[in-house]
Structure formats: structure tokens, C-alpha cells
Amino acid sequence: MLQGPAPRGPARKNKPMKTRVSRRDVLRFASGSAIGLALSPLPWKLTDDLAIWTQNWSWIPRPPRGELANRFTTCTLCPAGCAVRARCVGDTPVSLHGLPRDPLSGGTLCPLGSVGHHLAYHPARVAGAIRQLGRRGRSRAVPVQAEAAVAEVGKAIAAARARGDTVAVLDGRPGSAGSWALRRFASSLPGAVRVPAPGREGRWLEAVAAAAGDGSTAYGCDLERAGSVISFGALLSAGWGAPGRARALLARAGKGATLIEVDSRRSASATAARRLAIASDGEEALALGLAHVLLADGLVDPASLRQSRDVAAFSAVIRGFTPERVAERAGVEAGEIVALARTLAAHRPSLALGGEDPAAGPLAPGAAAAVFALDVLLGSVGGAGGLVPVRPVPPPEGGEDVTAPVELEEVADGSVGVLLIDASAGGVTLPWHWLERKLVGARAVVAAFSPYRAGLALRADLVFATPAYLEAYADAPTPAGEALASYAVAAPLLVPRAGAADPIVWLRRIAAAAGVATPSSLSSSEQVVRSRVDAIHRSGRGSVVDPADGSIRPIAAFASPEALLKALVAGGRWVDDAEPPRSAPACSLLGACGGRWRELAAGPAAPRADAAKFPLRLQLSGRRDAVASAATSPVTAKLYRESGLRSRPGTATVNPATARAAGLRPGQRVRVETGAGALGAPLACDAAVLPGVVEVAVGPDGVALGDRGAQPDATALDLAGTDGQGGWRSTPARLVEA
Amino acid sequence: MEGKAPAKARFGMVIDLDRCDGCGACMVACAVENNVPPARPSANDRTGLTWMRVHRATGGGPQGGDAVFIPVSCQHCGHHAPCVSVCPQNAVDVNPETGVVSQIPERCLGCRYCMAACPYHARYFNWWDPAWPAGTEAALNPEVSVRMRGVVEKCNFCHARWHAAKAKAAAAGKREIDPADYVPACVEACPNQAIVFGDLDDASSPAARLAREPHAFRLLDRLGTEPKVFYRSEREWVRRLGEADVAREAKEA
Questions:
Q1: Which of A80, A256, A616, B77 has its CA 20 to 30 A from that of A453?
Q2: Helix (H, G, I), strand (E, B), or coil: what is residue A10?
């Protein structure tokens, strides 16, 4: 075996193995381990897990789990009645969507409709019955036994009847299933009156029906065939009537169709609709000024003149409404009035449309009559592209009015002993002081049927809980302005909250407590819907459109009313057949306004007596979806606070010039004062608001839910003075530093 | 990470400002779809959460009272998205399949560098635990999880809907989704059909066609971030707003 050479030099001594661990060794090991761990994936994995873990606390809301399914229904939050696809987990809707094949809505939902499934969980929901204590609108609520509350209202009704006081029922949604029951109730109770909500959509068309004939023929608008549409107060582009139809009109704008929206408020019109800003209450003068130009320039169709009984008298009256004079009253240049009249004459068929503002109420009767007169001169009454007769939806059995409805302005002040407010179908926008004036005083009893302690229900002595949206049967009859009658049904998707009952059920119990016999028919909303569907089936008219797939089935294809109801509950919409055209009977252009228009034509308007004290005009504002419900989802706060897209209820907005003239700055607290009251409000400036106008937004406040959220709505409406003719569109006001 | 793989699609949208009437349906539909919680009552425009925010600006017309509504969401920058490059956590990701800039809340540590870097102010920080009124949890969208306090969130072109469209395509044995199956909530909700969504690289898509129109523009185009959200207006003063800071303009107006 070969051996290598021996190592040179001194032999190395082997060190003995170190057995003791020094402090330095420990530190070395710890440092190395720390560095090694830091370089390994472990800490990152731990951090990641920690991050995920800290995002899953037990109090973080967890979305529901389960299979998703679509159910089809109809939105009944406002009179538009848009078709809805509800995406549900189990039976609970988790989102709501429009249906593009729906002929009325065109497939979209407004912001309120999109969050409708949140409303059932609103913190201001009422359970059973509550009593409100203290001054109305500033009260606190205590729960009461439902039986005791029913007995109290029944006793009050009996006492009111004994004293000869009126029992008034405010119908929040005329035409709906609930409304038919109110009619029956009011008819079965001697001395009771049904008062339709003064701000209801379609009120101008009711005036048209009265002016164009005997009131028995209802009218709608043939927007689809109109060449030009000028709307006074009805913001079509913001959803008046059925939103899908206005959208179709806007799509045609620029391709032969014209839409002009006359309004004195800040308008959010898309540019496809031309906005004509006019002075407050300038609608009447502008309509008459346009009529003057049409007559003076010979732009009136002779055939349409024959439709009127008093053309000569009307011509004589409006001779004073020259464009120059109207320009002064309406705040529009004379040349623009002439050009506008010529545009309407050139783009026939032309339709002048009067309408209601969701926040500021209906047109004054003078303005409503002036717009109708303009329609007659344009030849649009009874013709294609104009105002066309509409057959009503067949009524339910036993729902007929025995007594005619009474407008609120016709109810004598201090005459109402019991006021029942039906706010179950949606919010009722109405200045409370107008209703309060009708009460007999402190002894009057006010009861409301509402899902929420909000809006007008805050002013009631007793509130009876009703189901929220999607919790009960509801229906959507023909929206205002529709050229064909239609009917849709919303079946419940959610279980009603304990203690909530149909307003019809409450009314029957109250009637029993008052010792009044009510007929057994119309005992629930579901029964009204069934009865109406029976009537539609019997009529044999129309067809059912399925918005889910766009299919159309004639009514004859449904073997039984049950089959028809099943189709409607599944989201179908019944649409009436087109009626053959018929000419409207001869009508009066002057109507009841001859004297007023003669006075207006005589010269410039006399200055208001309170012009020095109240130099500005207060106008309430709010889109339809902002005021349609007394309560809203907190998600809508994103529109008011987090984006500033809309003014929060109770915010005063003025033109920067108005603020400067009053020595006020944006953001400052101000007091808006009118003859009806005062309101502290933050001030905002917007160049789109006309000078001399103070806009105050109304509607539920999604930012502050519950009682706090409901207060500003009531307070802002309290400022509006009523004109005694059913409107509160503008009120003399002033702004002072708070 | 951005630039690693070519995008199979380049989803984007074109918003017609002449059609928008500021109804806010897009904002609300977005919040419902993505379970964006309502902010606390003390929140304001800076601390609230709005993946889609509609700004209002005035300035046109004879008296300067002409208004325009400008919906602004994440612009989904196509080139050097500032939020991607500043995130220390890799919590911002560009999906190579869609070109969509996504936020991954589980990775986010809440440093808010991305918010500072975003020139469009389109990112929002969760200052509070998400909370809805009692019972509303049952009405939340089951396809989107709720984000925790302390993370940043923003528009992702309704990522859950893209997943649903992919699942549907896969169930039908297809690799490509049907464009009709992938429509973000804001697009679906717009009553005036002002928002058009689609693949900007697909010449046949309406969005691609509209994006090439002469009246189309992008916000802060000069920055070179190549946003995939386009706007269009026939009004020149509105187009000029594209070069301004929209949020600031709206506030100053």
C-alpha cells in the first residue's frame, strides 16, 4: 500500500471538540435562523393568512349563500310600473334589474328601483301599531296594542259621524289595488270622502278629459308618433309617465323629433332634450304666448279651429299675449317664443304636454288650461301624435265609486274629524299644513297606513304597519300619459314583517269598530288583483307581453282568469288593443279661465304685496325616484353626500348672483323664510338655478336613516305655500343669515 | 403583473356625456352589485366609497349654466398604471385576459400609495367596517365578498360578472365568452344607454367603434396612461374638461 510523504513541519495538534455552547454561539444561531426564516416563504404566508383572517371577523356581513334564480315581477314604488327581474337566493331578492323587452320601462330601473329590495329592512319600519306623542312631526313613538288603536280610530269615526264631521281618506296612489278598497270603504261610510293625492301624476290629463268632453273619456299621449313635444312641468326625460317611452322619444330626437322641456327649475335633462328655462309660474303666459303666435301667423289648422266652440272669444282674449309681453312674464326672449311656435307648427304632429312635478306638485289650473288650449290650436286633440282617448283598465268587481272623489281644495277648512292617510303604496308629497287646515282642530284624529315611520305618517296620531315593497300583492295600472291601457302585477317575494297587515285589512277592522258594515268584497289587495284580472279576462281585450322573452300572447290564449293571473304574476304585462281613432267633441278654449286671462292680458302683473318682504321664489325640487318612497336605502346616500350629485333634502340652492346679492356664501347656514314657516339650511350655489329662485330639495334622506332622516322632508314641504288651487309650485320667500 | 402576457381582450367603455342626465342609477347599481357599503353618517366625499362617481360640472351655455355629468370610475390604465407600480404588496393586478386593473383586497395592507398615485381619484379606502342596516345582509350579492376596514377598493368592471360569463361559456363548451353575458352593472343600469362596454381590440364591438370617433376623448390623456374608459361629447367645452381635474372642476364650479 503506497503511503504518501509525511507532512512537513510541526505536527498539527487536533483541537478537542468544543462541548460548551457560548453566548456568542446562541446569538449566531438565532441570527442565522432569523435571516433564514425571513428569506423563506413562511413569514409571507403567515402575513397573508393574517391579512385574510383579519378580514373575516364575525361582525363583517356575509352575503347569503345558495343557488341563484331569477324571478320576474313589477316595480310598484312609483306609478311607472317598470318590469323587474329579481335575482334571488332562495326566496330573497339580492338584486333587481330592468327588463329590456318591457315596452313601458325600456329595460331600466331608477336608483330607487335598484335598491327596492333594501326597503324591507329600513330602520324606520313600523311593527303593528304605534302612537305618536307630542307635536305632529316632532313626535316620539310608542308601541300600542293594535286592537286598542283600531278601537280608538273606530270610536273617533263614530264620534265624527255623530257630530257631522267629515271622515276623509287620503288616497296616496289612485288607481292601485289599495285605492279600490279605499273607494269601497269611503262609499260604505256615510259622510266619508276619498281625497286623491293632489300631486298625483296624470292630473293634467284628468283636466284635459274634463275640458275635452264630459270627463268620462280618459286621454293619453301618443308620443311615439309625435313630431315635436313641448312639455310644461312634466319632465319626460326624468321619467314622467313611463320612462321607456320618453327614452324612445329622445332616441328619435335629432332624427325628425323634437323634445322641449319648459321648466323653471334646475333640470338634469340630457342634451337630446332641449331645456327652456322660464321664470317661476311662467308656464301659463308662455303657453298663451305660443297660442298668440300660432293664431297671429295663421299657423293653426282650420280643422282644429272647428273643434273649439269659442275660438273668436279666445282670440280676442289672447290678443294681449304678444311675444313682447309674454317675454316679460315668462323670462324668455320674444324672438324665442316666435321661433318656438313656428317649430311646433312645422314639426306636426305636435303635442303640448302639461304635467306634475314629483316635488312641486301639479300645474296651476290656469296653466293647465292654457296648455290644453295650445293643444287644440296645434290640432293634437284626438289625432295621431297628440292626445288620444284611452280606455280604462276594467275595474274590479264591487270597486265602483258610489260617491265621487273630492279634491283636497274642495274640502272645507276645519271640517275633517278623522283623517286616514294611505301611504302604503309610496310616499305622498304634500305640505302637511294644507291637510292640517282641514282638520277640526285638536280633537281630530289622524291615522296613517304606512310601512315606515316617515313622510306624512310622521304627522299621524296613530300609524298602522303595512307591508313594504315586495312583501305583498300590488299592481301597476296604466301610467300617466300612456296611449294604451296596461296592467301589471307584483306578487310578494318577501315574507311581511310581523304585525304588518294590508291597509284593506286595517280599514275593515276600523270600520267594524266604528259599527259600519263593509261589504265582504275587496277584503285584501290580493283579492282586488284577482278580481281585476277576472275583469280583464272577461273583457277579452288586449294581449300579454312577457318582458322576459318579449313574447306576446293574445288574451284569448288564456283559458281561464287563473292562467292569466299566473302569467301576470310571472312578470307579464297586459296591454290593451289600440282603439280606433275618433274625433274629440267640440270644446271650450277659454274654459273657466276667460276672466283670469283677460286680467292677465290687460297689462303687466301688479307687484305682489309682499314683494319687498319676500323678494325670492321658493321652489321644491326632487326627482321622481327621490320622492316616490317615504324611505330609501342607505346606499342612495352615495348620490347625496359622497358625490354631491343631488342636493340633500333641506339644502337651499341658489344662483351665485342671488347669493351675492343677499351677501351670503356657499356652505353658510341660512334661514329660508316664507309666509308658511322658516327652515335652517346649508346654502349651495349653482349657476343652473335661475336668479331669484331658491331651490330646496325634498324627499327622504338616505344619509340619516330613521327618524332623523325623515324630518327634513316634512320640514322643507312645510315652507311651501299652497295656491288654493291644488298646487304649491312656487312660494314667495327670502334668505337670511342663520 | 402588467406587461407579462399580452391581453386576450382589452375591455373598456365609452361614456356618452351628452346622454347622461345625472340620474345616478349607475352609482347605485354599482354599489348594489359589488356590495359597496353605505358609509357612516360622518363620511364625506373623501371618505365615502363610490366605485363609480358622477361629477357635475357647469360652464357651457350662454350664462355658463349649461351642465354636464361625468361618471368617473377606475380608468383601467393600459400603460404603466400608476397604482400597479407603487403597490408594495402586489395587491394591484392587471388581468392579462381582460386588461382589467384589479384590486386584491386580501393582499392590500392599506398604505394608500395607490390612492396617492391615481391621477383620477378613482380609488377609495375603507375607513370603517362595512355595515348595512340589520337584516340587509340577506340582500347582499352572493357573488362578491365584502371588503374589510383598512383596505383600498375600486371599480373592477364587475369582475364577478366576468367570472359568471366565463363559467357559462365553459358550461357550453366554449373558450370565449359571449359579449352579451359580460355587461358591468353600471352599463346595464344606465337608463339612457350612455355607457357602452366591450372589447376595445375587437373592431366589430360598438365600444371600439365609438372610442375611435372624433368626439371621443380620455381624461388626462396627456399623462400617457392610456385609460380604457373613453368619453364622448359633441360639446367642445365638455371635451376640454378631459384635460382638467374633473373632481376639482366640479367642486370649484
A1: A80
A2: coil
Least CA distance to A55: which residue of chain B?
A: B148
- DSSP labels for B102-122? EE-TTT-----HHHHH-TT--
Q: How close is the nearest chain A Cα to the Cα of B81, in Å?
A: 24
What is the C-alpha separation between A413 and A28, in angstroms, rounded? 96
Residue B47's closest chain A neighbor by CA?
A642
Cell of A532: 281585476
If DSSP codes are grouped into helix, strand and coil, which group holds residue A164?
A: coil
Write the ipTM: 0.92
How much of chain B is helix, strand and coil, in % rounded to 5?
A: 25, 15, 55
Contact B21 A635 (CB under 8 A): no
Cell numbers placing A111: 336608483
How many angstroms separate the CA atoms of B101 and B114, rounded?
12
The model's pLDDT over A59-88, given as tens digits with 9 standing for 90+, comes to 888 899 999 999 999 999 999 999 999 999
Q: Does A55 touch chain B (CB under 8 A)?
A: yes
CA-nearest residue to A236 within chain B is B21
**CB-based contact A260:A229 (threshold 8 Å):** yes
Best residue in B44, B54, B192, B234 for a mutation probing chain A (most A CBs within 10 Å): B192
Give me the domains of chain B, ranges plus CATH numbers.
11-160+189-242 (3.30.70.20)
- Cβ of residue B111 closer than 8 Å to a chain A Cβ: no
C-alpha grid cell, residue A132: 305618536
* Chain A residue with Cα closest to B56: A645
In terms of DSSP H, where are the helices of A306-424?
A: 311-318, 323-330, 334-346, 365-378
Alpha-carbon Rg of chain A, whole angstroms? Answer: 33
| Amino acid present at A719 | L
Q: What is the pLDDT of residues A411-469, one digit of tens each?
A: 999 999 999 999 998 878 889 999 999 999 889 999 999 999 988 898 999 999 999 99
B106 touches chain A (CB under 8 A): yes
Instruction: List all residues of chain B from 83 to 102 with a beta carbon under 8 Å from chain A.
Output: none
Distance CA A326, CA A320 (A): 9
